[in-house]
Amino acid sequence: MKAAERRRAPLWFLYPIGLATAVSVLYLFTLYPGTGGETDSAKWQFIGKVFGVPHTTGYPLYILVNHVFSLLPIGTLAWRINFMSAFFAVLAVVLLQRILRGLLNSELLALGGALVLAVTQMFWTFAVVAGVYSLNAFFICLVMYLLFKWADGRRARLSGARGGRGYLYAACFAYALSLGNHVTMITMLPALVVFALAMDWRAVLSFETLFLCGLFALIAASLYVLLFVETALPSPYLEHRIRTFNDLWQLLTAEGFRQRIFEGGIKVFALHLRDLYVPDASAQFMPLGLAFAAGGLFLFAQKHGRKLLFILVFLCANLFMALNYSVNPQQLGYQFIPSYVLLALFIGFLPAAPDVVAPRADRAARWILSSALLLVLVGLAAVLAVNNIQPLEEKRQKMAVIDKLVNDAIDALPANGVLLANSYNDSMILMYKMLGEERGSAKRWRVLHDADWKITRVDPERPAAVEEVCNRDVVERLMRGEDVDWSPLVTHKGEPAKHEVYFWGIDQPLLDEAGFEYERVHLPGDGTGEDCYGGGPVGLFRITGPAAKPPGG
């Protein structure tokens, strides 16, 4: 090593540390302070504390890590789990910088792509609120980093140094663990196998490698034993009861919506790619960023063909699965985050253009041009940050209002009161308050999940016009003190079954249509007026009894 390189080497850590510090400040500044936020966020904010069983596919590793973060002696429970997302998002960004450093052979130039990823709207959103996506992005970057380090040490392996396989084994172990967080990581398996065989098939097919991979697979599978334990205890929250291996298989294979996967085949995939993914990716990176990604892909192909093979196989498999769901298009956006990590990698490779296109040009000229391209990427990241910070701040303010509303509604409940959750999000936020914060626990109040007191009605003449209506029988039995299905809330024998029943929400016609008599319970509001939260009125209604004659009776 030259003297100048020896002097610079000890300072390499300043780049990832500086990057981690800057991104951490950004995420902590925009971190959601309380419960709720995005899709299942409220559920993730309490599920680790109570060791519950969530929806498909169980997420046992996430539950374990979530529980560890729930023990931190700072902030509310929701804040701690939101912080967990920020923690792993920062690690993912730093790992992307390390990957780019290996590709570009420059600590400084490797910063551009990492900064762009950090401030894209979808990645940033799930970096500041509870969810499985930041941990998933971390594992994607970790496996890539370890695999590429192994590939870069190929000379050591060819010379007979056994230590060269260490990165391969570490990559396989990290990959096995990742399946305990998000089973869609299965889409990385073809890429991992193809890349490893292309690099060194003898090392991959050796007894030592195959034995260790089998051991890692058993470790990953053992994580799912936790679901049996949670069911047996039982946890106070069980969306699924895992008592047999058939129960586990149904959970892992998403039996509830399995028919929606690959339902439309190639046609649905192509339509979603054109109408959903491309516009969404353009919104994440701006059209200029997508142009940079295309340019980076071209440059990457010239210099790192085998690594590109890994990325493209993973990208295609991941998108094929993500775009083959026949569900609400809004539910697909979260599945695109792995592909955005890869697009950011291509964007970050752009500063390599001078070395790839004109490797014999003057070194100083190439460095100046690479630095200029880095500045362009930093500018792109700055524009994305400015565009995305205001919507995030508005969401934070909205969630603070909702948090106050829920607290006020719970405080207004009597002992043994029950709240009929009006929607899935309401259900999860109320479950968080009851199980996570244990707010009002002395009152022994409960939540009835929206799916447990509503029924779906389909108009035969308009099959697409599906609406939810009140299941009058369930609410009447609840008011009489008879047993009802509290699923997924686990109840115990001996607890009082009779409750005063309350409905919180703006869909008051649900009660009118079902023929219930009710009275408004006034709430203090958020300072803009009684019963007003977020600029509009919200009702809390106590159901006093059924009308003498139900509608249509």
Q: Mind explaining what this structure looks like?
A:
With 553 residues, this protein is of the alpha/beta class. It folds into two domains: 15-395, no CATH class; 413-546, no CATH class. It has 23 helices and nine strands. The termini are far apart.
Could you name the key traits of this structure?
single chain, 553 residues, alpha/beta, 2 domains, two-stranded antiparallel sheet, 23 helices, 9 strands, globular
Give the arrangement of secondary structure elements.
Elements: H1 3-8, H2 14-30, H3 41-50, H4 60-70, H5 77-104, H6 111-118, H7 121-125, H8 133-152, H9 154-158, H10 166-178, H11 189-204, H12 207-222, H13 225-232, H14 245-252, H15 265-303, H16 305-322, H17 337-348, H18 353-357, H19 363-412, E1 417-420, H20 424-436, E2 446-448, H21 450-453, E3 454-459, E4 462-470, H22 472-480, E5 500-505, H23 509-514, E6 516-520, E7 532-533, E8 536-537, E9 539-546
Parallel strand pairs: 1-2, 1-5
Antiparallel strand pairs: 3-4, 5-9, 6-9, 7-8
Helix pairs in contact: 2-5, 2-6, 3-4, 3-5, 3-20, 5-6, 5-8, 6-17, 6-19, 8-10, 10-12, 11-16, 15-16, 15-17
